[in-house]
Amino acid sequence: MANQPVIVIAGLACETSGFSPARTLAPAFHPRRDTEIIEKYPFIQLGTPLGDAAEWRGALIGHALPGGIVARTAFEELVEDILFRLMDICKSTTVHGLWFDIHGAMCVEDLDDAEAELLRRIRCVIGSHVIVSASMDLHGNVSQELAHQIDLITCYRMAPHEDAMDTKERACRNLVNLLAGGSSPARPLKAWVPIPILLPGEQTSTRLQPAKGLYALVPEVESIAGVLDAAIWVGYAWADEPRNHAVVMVTGWEADVVTAGARKLATHFWDSREDFHFVAPTGSLTECIDTALQSTSRPFFISDSGDNPTAGGAGDVTWSLSKVLSRPEFQHDSGPRVIYASIPGPEAVESIVRAGVGATVTVTAGAQVDDTHEGPVTMTGRIHAIKKGDRNAVTETVVQVGSVSVILTELRKPYHLEKDFTELNLEPRSADIVIVKIGYLEPELFNMAADWMLALTPGGVDQDLPRLGHQRIHRPMWPFDRTFSEAPDLTPRFIPPSNEPFTTHSV
């Protein structure tokens, strides 16, 4: 319809560890363009309230599996594509809104604050008059510059992120509602509060207190008359930029309630800082395996947390696998049934595919990207399964080494779902021990686990943050610093609208 606002969609998302030697290239983003974007999100398709409320035009979005820093050439290639498509759209119609579909923890070589830079370039094409609504991961980062360029902003309220689609839909709904006010809608107030806390997700899961109670306050603040949205970002712990810290933002129409809401959330977060602990019992890998062997709970899950590919780990650190295969308990077929997920090794997978299911092979895999902790691991075993066509892994295989079912993949892949195992003819519910490169367990695994421990293993997303060697984050920062000479200033700061010069002032 002629009176409908035109909303374009663009964004790049990749949670990237600055402590991993891996690099993320353009194909890893699996870019979607034009109508492919609309097809991805049912809530903006025709026949839905949001789909019928605006004309949605896709430019380009790219969502990469978390990994190492994005190569500058990859960033420039993707951004050029985004800008070209936005220019083409702007030639044919007037653009009123942008849904900025991002994660918020993307690091790019030789570039700080990548999302703010991306939006700055987008604004050069679409103009400052366009209303921008961003949806983000709560493990993202919100700098003052990003907060300035955005008009509406929201993030997940659950970790694990079971509300990801709800959050994206909320960002679009807020945008549509604002644009319904006419061709030049008023822009909401934005109260921004930086908090000197930087914690890993494994200490801030909303399944447990204090994060559960902290995030329960978000909808309470949002429900207050005069507030449009409230959000808390834990921040991303495995990168080293000045923007890496927790943030609270509240947007709305009435200054008093917006600032009061932001102050309430920020104060509660700071006052709870000493209460954040890991979401499961922790220990060294040896301690976790020993506990699992002594336990009668089956299946017993162990998180190989330091190389978690969904937090930015390279996914090919062999340190844990080599320790598992060296355990005498697992070196015979009759030993405890163990599943290890997973290790990439393209040459090993090629040999396995060539040999076929049932054959015995000797292959070497891992440590092609991150060899800082252990070299490649060589194993001999019987081929249990081969599966082709996975979006991430491309080809998946299983080799039975003693009593350990080792999943070897062509490319790295996270294992979050029961079907990830059963499609490889593995039965995790019947296993004694399941070891997964992950941090907190995703919902299906969490519900499946009879017991669980978090192994504090090495890698690009090491849970022992101080030993990683951050140099550029603001200090003091909890928990890097346990004493503060004075309490942090948690006074909300108003960030000006995106169509005004960048300044900030405390309320």
From TrEMBL:
Domain Microcystin LR degradation protein MlrC C-terminal span(s) in chain numbering: 302-472
UniProt domain Microcystin LR degradation protein MlrC N-terminal: residue ranges: 7-293
Entries under InterPro entries matching the protein: MlrC, MlrC_C, MlrC_N
Protein name in UniProt: MlrC C-terminus superfamily protein
